[in-house]
Every structure is written in C-alpha cells, then in structure tokens.
C-alpha cells in the first residue's frame, strides 16, 4: 500500500515536472500581460504590482482586434462548410459507388496528404492574382478547403462505409433518390464524423498563417495570426502589450478546445492512424 | 501497394445497371454508371484541381523562367534555376538544418512524448487534466507560440535568461538563444517541441488504447516485468502509430515556416532558415519568382520522394486500405 502510494506520488511528480515546461510559458504570458514593459524586463518572474489592466482593456476596445477575430471566424466557418460539403459528397461516391477510375481518383486525393501546403503557396499566390482573388477572403477559403479535402474525405469515407448498405436499399425501395438518401439519411447518421472533421477544419483554418499572410495584405481582411504578427511589428518593444494581444488571441482557441476537445482528438487520432 | 494510379480491376457487368435494378445487385456493390458518381465528385475534384494540382504545375512552369513575378514569364531559363539552387549554400544549409530538426525530433521529442503517453495511459488522478494541458499548445497557432517564445528568449531580459542565468551547464546559454547563430537552431527546436509534443503524445495515447489489456496481462503472467512488457508487447504493437508520427515529423520539418518567420525570419546569418523561408525570401522579398518556384518544386520533390519511399518501405502495411487502396474490400 505504501509502495503504491510512493509510486503514484513519483508518477505525479514526473508529470508535474514535464507539465511545467508546458504551463510555465502560458502562465508567464497571462501574468505578463498585466505588467508594464519596464516591469516585464526588469523582473520577468515576479508578479505585477500594481496589476495593469489597461493592456488588455485597450486591446479589447480596439476595432482591429475584433475585426481580425471576425475575419478569422468568417474564414474558418466558410472553409469548413465548403470542405465538409465537398468532401461528404465525394466520400459518398467513394464509399457507395463503383465506377471506373474510383481507385485512381481516391489515390489522387489521398496523395494530397503528402503535398505540404507550403509547397503550393507561391504558385497559389500567382494563380490567385490572375483570378483576382488577392485581398479577398475567397483567396484563402478556397485553397484552405482544397488542402483540407484529403483528410476529410478519408475520414468520412471510412465512416460512410460502416453504414449498412441495406439501409440504402430500403430507402431507395421506398422511393428515395440517391441524393435524397445521402441528404436525409446518411448525413444525419454521420453527425459524429461530420463534427470531427469540422473541428479539424476549423482549427486548421484558424491557425493558418502562411497563406493569409500572402493573400490578405489589406488590413480589412487580416486574420488573427496575421494580425498578431502585424501588431508585434508595430509595438515591437512594448513586450507587455504584445503579450496581452496573444493572450487574448489564445482565448477563442482555448475556449473552442474546451468545447470540442473530444471531436478534435478523435479527428486527429483517426487522421493519424488512418493516413 | 503503391500510390501509382490503378483502376478498379474487379469484373464488371458490360451493361451499366439502371436505377431500378438496384435490388438485384449484391449488397453495397451496386454498380452505377460513373456519370452519377461524377456529380458527387465534381465539387471536390474542381477544388482540388484548381488549388492543389494546378499550383504544383504552375510552380514547375515558373521555375523554368527568370521571372520577377509580374507580367507573363518570358525569359526562358531552362534548368538554370535548378543549377543555381544546387550550388546555393543557403539552400544546402536548409537541407542540412531540416535534417537536423528531423533527427532531433525523432531522437528527443518522440521518445519523451512516448514516455509521457505511457505514463498518462495508467490510471491516475487528474489524468484527463494532464492530457489537456500537454495538448494545449498544439491548438494555439504557430504565430502565438513564436511571438511568446520570442519574448521569453529575449537576451538579457527574458524569462529564459532569468531562469537559467545562474545555473551550471545551461547558464552559458543566457544572452544567446535566438540571437546567436550557434544556439538559434536548438532554441527553435525547443519551441517546436513545446508546440508539437502534445500532438505526438495524443496519437500515442490513442495507439496505446488500441492495445488489448489481455495481451499485456498474458505477458505479465508469463513473468515479464514492466520493461519487458513495454519492449516486447507495447512497442511492437505501437509501431504503426510511431511510423505515422515519424512521417508527420518529417513532412512538418520540410515545410516549417510559421515558427521561423515569427521568431527569427531565418537569422541570425541563416542559422534557422528553412526551405520555405528561403522560398518566401526569394519570391516575395527579392521578387525572384522563377528561383522561388524552383525551391517550391524542390520541396515538392523531396516530400514526394520521401513519402513514396516511406510508404513503400515503412508504412506499407499500416496504410493498406486507408491511403492506397480505394476499394479496401479486397
């Protein structure tokens, strides 16, 4: 009994030691946001005295921050709707139809997993410019959706295949069309899988930096990661203020994670083990 | 099992089954003309074509020109850009630094992540909270991680200096971190570890949960201690997950951009520069789009060749039925 207790205590100690490497930077950020930059650089470890709230309140009352959050939300939602809609249709075809070239097309999409988006960023810029999509949210939404297709199709296809074919036959015998079956029966049944891929797509879009950096030069459309970088450039020596900005930018991500944790991890592990 | 294009080799009826005949076909195998499947595939296919496949061809095309990025590329250069690339010390350095980051990830980050996963796979109080904490950095953007650690590693006044300042061994790092060419890459690696560690831990945890308890019990009844159980049962059964995690680490290192751009923009004196950063520098700072295109193509070829070889020799069994065989029902 006592040996068990000691073992458990040492296990916790080990986790705490490892965990402190993760937590200390985050705590440091939250606390430092309340300091003046002077206090931050002379005493990085201590608590702020007095607690300076104006860093945070100043950002919260600025239009830029909220506009960036709004842009990020809008782009993430649009990307996700497009990704999931296009992927669900395609995954339905891959899971339920036998057609010539099915293997070829599926392999083509699956191979997309191996193309790092960074490879395509420069030619995408050239292409988007010729489509007139620079400084337009669609210039980020469309490519993001395209790069999210492979993983989404793979996860949805494997889920669609778990739904018994008898169900489809019964529906079609009752006069349901192919699309009717897909829309009215399959999609509602696939809600957990749709949730998982949606959360994955939202997080990927929310964190994307490279593409929005290139495409959305106009501050009107800047997303939050690009906004952070701009803000850092602008207030490069006011470290406390910059830290307050990133702490506030963390809040939506952490809140979303708290709500969607299970779906996100389900998606990552399904994605990681299935391809 | 390769990624090459294969067509469905199952025998098929000569006549396309019309709608009403569906009942007669075997369950789940009703053959349909590919016309109707096309309507379902079309949106995804168009998106993929225009925003994934075409850009890769555009990169190939522009890489053959000396092109500043405006107007049409007209100054055909053949393979000049590639010849220049092969001799460019910065690009060679990119390859070397990429390799260093991959090796460090596999040698340091993954084993620690595995150890933590094994630890957190045991029953213990607060396990869910611990998992959530370790995973938290993964959901924050690279920009947030980069800006935060840029400030933590400020020479002289940052948190890191204050913490290590008087310590033996690491005390010498104080004042250097991102600002000294000899320590910048290891510092970058530390930030990468902070950011991605939780992701690897999480997929290992998922893998560990797939290992049946009976197998471990059986080993324990046969007299295997914890270490032997780990070596003999857990590790081999976790091998597919480990191979995926190595794969993702390498692909991640090939395209590393955000963290570098936000912390060091590749400096000091190129000591943290990656291929993606070099590409960005040439494409959008110096307007040498042709040369930047050649870097894109090089990145594409490297990740493609690596993926194919890795698929062929390491992932073959794991991915069967997932990435490579569309049917999966064979």
What does this protein structure show overall?
The complex is a heterodimer of chains A (275) and B (330). Chain A is an all-alpha fold and 275 residues long. Chain A folds into two domains: 1-34; 77-238 and 257-273, MetI-like (MetI-like fold), CATH 1.10.3720.10. Chain A is built from 13 helices and no strands. The two termini of chain A are 44 Å apart. Chain B has 330 residues and is an all-alpha fold. Chain B has a domain at 103-211 and 238-273: Orthogonal Bundle (MetI-like fold), CATH 1.10.3720. Chain B is built from twelve helices and no strands. Chain B is globular, with a radius of gyration of 25 Å. Chain A: Its main location: membrane. Chain A: It is a multi-pass membrane protein.
What's this, in brief?
By secondary structure, chain A is an all-alpha fold. Chain A is built from 13 helices and no strands. Chain A has helices at residues 2-32, 37-42, 54-60, 63-96, 102-111, 117-131, 138-160, 165-173, 178-189, 191-207, 210-215, 224-234, 239-274.
Average predicted confidence as pLDDT of chain B: 82
Question: What summary fits the major beta sheet of chain B?
Answer: none
**Biggest sheet character of chain A:** none
Number of domains of chain A: 2
- Give the helix proportion of chain B (percent range): 55-70%
CATH architecture of the largest domain in chain A: Orthogonal Bundle
Distance between the termini of chain B: 13 Å
Keywords:
heterodimer, A: 275 residues, mainly alpha, MetI-like fold, 2 domains, B: 330 residues, disordered C terminus, MetI-like_sf (chain B), transport (chain B), MetI-like (chain B)
